[in-house]
Specification:
about 260 residues; mainly alpha; two-stranded antiparallel sheet; 10 helices; 2 strands; about 50% helix; disordered C terminus
Length: about 260
């Protein structure tokens, strides 16, 4: 049972967060707040999200707040995919999702078998340093590739060329991922999304889903900062990084990750 003192503090924190959102949030974050905490509708989130989608179906215009590139990029399009997943909206007939599939089919921002983490046009607009592009083609990366490819397996037409391409990409990426022990939080989250999409869609893949699941649990436990005093002031991996329905694929996980 939560004590009156602790309960009052939680209420104060919630109200402070609510006031901040109401005073400062963009329409997309405001719609998400309403959806999660005030019985807001999915339609309001979709309406706000649509404003960031370009004619080619990809997303830009600082939906990813650290990059003001108005053009479509794989990483910003993946940000849109995460929002759709967050509100559990994966209707393949909806215009937003049809647009995303069109963008992915175009292979814009796709190089050397993967979608790119950075693209050259980022450099023409204000952006955080990690979105710098140091060449004229982009930086292919598992982030966002495996998340985008998994999204296609979830919502795409199984007879389409894009679906077959994404299945091959996933099989190759997972095979490489299972062989290495390098850990990075954003890449891990993309693989968590991937496994969730594969399990939800019952997609036929060549890798062992249990082996990937075990690998992800180990990686999450390794990356999680277990010093709560650092959570508020440092850019570290926190339990909140895993507050997402995709984590329900983990029916067993270490006590450290469960309880912080």
């Amino acid at each position: 049972m939560i004590s009156n003192h602790k309960g009052g503090r939680l209420i104060d924190l919630f109200n402070n967060a609510r006031n901040f959102i109401y005073r400062n949030a963009r329409p997309i974050e405001f719609a998400l707040w309403k959806y999660h905490f005030e019985n807001g509708s999915k339609e309001s989130v979709l309406e706000a999200l649509k404003a960031y989608q370009n004619d080619d179906g990809g997303f830009g215009h600082a939906l990813e707040p650290d990059s003001f590139n108005p053009g479509s990029s794989p990483i910003t399009t993946n940000h849109a995919v995460k929002i759709l997943d967050e509100i559990n909206f994966l209707d393949s007939k909806h215009e937003i999702i049809r647009g995303i599939l069109k963008y992915l089919e175009s292979e814009k921002g796709f190089f050397d078998g993967k979608w790119c983490f950075t693209i050259p046009s980022n450099n023409d607009f204000p952006h955080a340093v990690w979105w710098d592009c140091e060449n004229d083609v982009g930086e292919p990366s598992d982030n966002p590739t495996v998340s985008l490819a998994g999204f296609v397996l979830k919502v795409g037409n199984r007879d389409s060329e894009l679906y077959g391409k994404c299945r091959n990409i996933i099989n190759r990426c997972v095979e490489e991922y299972l062989k290495n022990d390098e850990e990075e939080i954003h890449t891990l989250l993309c693989y968590i999304n991937l496994l969730s999409y594969v399990v939800d869609s019952d997609a036929e893949v060549s890798f062992d889903t249990e082996a990937l699941r075990d690998r992800l649990i180990t990686a999450a436990d390794k990356l999680l900062c277990k010093e709560p005093e650092r959570w508020e002031s440092e850019y570290v991996c926190k339990p909140s990084n895993f507050f997402h329905r995709s984590m329900f694929i983990f029916d067993s996980i270490s006590d450290d990750l469960k309880h912080g």
